Amino acid sequence: MWRVFSYLLRRNVFVARVIPDALAPTHSQGEEHMALQDIAERMQRGLDKRPLAETIKFDCGDDGAITLDAGQAVIEDRPAQCTIHISEPNLQKLIGGKLNPMTAFVMGKIKVTGDMKLAMKLGQLLG
Q1: 118 near 54, Cβ under 8 Å?
Q2: Distance of alpha carbon 73 from alpha carbon 80, whole angstroms
Q3: Which domain holds residue 17?
């Protein structure tokens, strides 16, 4: 897994870089909280430009899950080929570019289960 995230980081391929205009701050500078719905909408903008055929889930535990399925970002806990386990606050930081994916992985803030090759497909969402 370390090699996968190292590769993603070297190639600037990860969720924190999902289409730059899709990640432009939509909240005021002082407002840091981003609801799961806001995160899903940002991911959807990336999927609209570069659809993903496979299913990837961001599992935020009790806070909910975002599943990227058939070109749609939905707030549902659906079965997925690849699941990225991350807390909602850490997902907010990751999407906002405030959490380094490599550091998060090493510290155990991100865990990936299922098909690791699909985590690489996140590059399709990246600009």
Answers
A1: yes
A2: 12
A3: 2-21+34-125
